[in-house]
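Teaching note: in complex prediction, the entire set of molecules is handled at once rather than each chain in isolation. The prompt given to students was simply: 'Predict the structure of this complex.' The entities are:
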Amino acid sequence: MSWKLAVVPERCSGCKICELVCSIHRFGVNNPKKSAIRVMVVYPHPIIRMPIVCRQCKVAKCMENCPTGAITTKDGVYDIDNEKCISCQQCVISCPFGAVFLHEEIETPFKCNLCNGNPRCVAACPKNALLFLPEHVLGQAQRMTSVLKYGHMKEVEYVEKGERKVLRYADIEKGKAED
Amino acid sequence: MPTSKREKRKIKGGYFWKILWVDFDRGEAKPLEFDEAFASKYIGGRGFGAKLLWDHLQKQRIDPLGPENLLVISPGPLAGLYLPASGKTSFISISPETGIYGDSSMGGSFGTELRQAGIDALAITGKARALSYLWVDNGEVKVISNEKLKGKGSLESEGIIKEDLKDEHIKIATIGPAGEHGVRFACVTSDWGRNSGRTGMGAIMGSKNLKAIAVRGSKDLPVFNLPRLQKASEASFRSLRENKNFAFWQEQGLMSVIDYVNEAGVMPTYNFREGVFEHAKKINGYEMLSKYKIGDTSCFACPMACGNVCLVKEGKYRGTVVEGPEYETACMFGPNIGVQNFAAILKANQLCDELGIDTITAGNLIGVLMEAQETGLLSEKDLEGLNLKWGEEEAILETVQRIAHRKGIGNILAEGSFGVIKQWPQLKPIISQVKGLEQSAYDARIAISMALGYATSDIGAHHARAWTIAKELEMGMDWPLEKKADLVIYHQTLRPLFDMLGVCRLPWIELGFDEHQYAEFYSAVTGIETTLNELLQRSKDLYDLTRAINMKFGISRKDDYPPERVFNLPMTEGPHAGKILKREDYEAILDIYYQKRGWTQDGQVDEKKMASFHDSLVTT
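The expected output is the structure of the full assembly:
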């Protein structure tokens, strides 16, 4: 079974603790600029805090575009082989998410390798914005969200016997329903 | 730096040993190296700032808004590290608001970035020829002038500079129009809403033609024993997350304090006249949660995420987005000026952030005008026709605008309490300030330790140095004065220590985080086994140093009194109705306080102590 690191941007507060633990685990230094996860903060239009991290794509653009075959995959996790890598940075620009990173003191690009199945950032996130989930669970949260969104709809227009009518739903708000 | 020197050092981490000294007048930026004694004695943050200011003052007289003033920006040896809430940095200078020592710490991640650029502190003096910003790129410095930034808001400027430098990840501290116009309580803003709010640090930047400081850093932060730090930090993060109030705190942040303060009857209400606001429920944390909050934000490495992002979804302020409000802003722009519309508080907060104005001082001074309007101390003509009645939102927002642009009445307010008193001496008894700094949002009438805290704070009436009100209310009023003085001194020692280390005090205050952990962090980072008591001693010495700086400006016992109101104006409502402080009690506690500090009864630091600060420890 393959596991995925999923991000819930709505929960992220931008504290960068994920970056810190990543750099410590990965490179043994306290340096958020050497982490394989990066929190992007955009403000004020729109307001988004979102950790960018490798999604371990099954059709991996980074691997496809690597001219030296330095990107390898094992159990669905991609990593860069520093021996083969020539640091042409093709993977950095081919990743659609910008999840392959560079640092001036490190010769080759680096990316998330899921810490051998135990991603440190997930446990460290104080907002539970990072989840480590079996692949088949992915999307369930979004499905649930759309169901809830539908439930929140207050009005639906419909036509009955040629007459336009409005059906009003109860305004089920999060929290209130749980009381 | 020669390796031999590095190897000889006993302090093995925590510092880059570099202060970047920028002198606009001489057109130079040079790295200064400091020695171990400097690092050990002054630690960092406000410690470095105070010492550099002290040395600077030996050479010349300083007019706060003159080019000779020195602005120090210093995070501290723990800033940017993997430990709870390490995202603080201090701005230190001679304050244009008070004319004495001033500092204000800022959250966000500006300090982390500065450290990653390989700089322990940035010291800025002189005046740039044209409106410019400083670009510190991994330690390399450039002064870039950009006329496009003139008159632009703080947040807007952040965007312009990011575009200018083509990098979304850089960190920027900016000032708004208020700073450019020398408003004496202008603030410095970073990360779209984190402020170095008090004592007018934005005006200092403005006086130097310095619109912003942009920083990019990518260096490893020096830590002697990273596994040890990691171990201590993991336990610390765990203890915070297991705290029963953790989730509540993330949800409300400092807005949770509103209910507490109102129930305790110490809410600044109608210009500090009352202690209970009848409409508090309309502006509390629950109101924010139910209608306005759209997200959490936190400073660097902080699990508590006390920042609230709020959006006004309907009504005349629709579309207003702001990181805030924080408790102080909500009170000073709420109960203190009679506002009961949360959306209006958000609007005022956003406006102050963009214009670059300290919300505490602005709310305080507007409260003064409103009371003066009500009691006839100021005429309609004085107020230029502004309808400054309690809760009048439009007049409030207009006044804020006039302050930032120094228009009409705003030009008087922009001078701070001292300027207002000079213009209208009749307002002196109704202005709540100490040493020229306007009181922040906790009433002090019923808690003598809080009054002492405000009165003896080295920057003026700000709660950051000693917030003892909760403890005093909990212990009861009959607690002996001795103990209350001890409490104030403990606060004034521990809290500034956080500012020296570069960490936030809120984990300790709000979630009871054990302060002894900071000694463990410090030991792990520097490789010097240090106890909390040893660190506290350095912080205590630093309090003597900031006092010594203030003595150069003539500060003595006469300046160590709380705002007049606490002695002569009883509240009419709430649990403390009818209470005021007795003057003789205050004199007594002040005597005790000086004695415990080892100061004279006139509040002076002795010669021997002063001499100990004359060690020269920074070299070019």
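Point out the following to students. The CA atoms of residues 56 and 561 of chain B lie 28 Å apart. The domain at 3-216 of chain B is CATH 3.60.9.10 (Aldehyde Ferredoxin Oxidoreductase;  A, domain 1).
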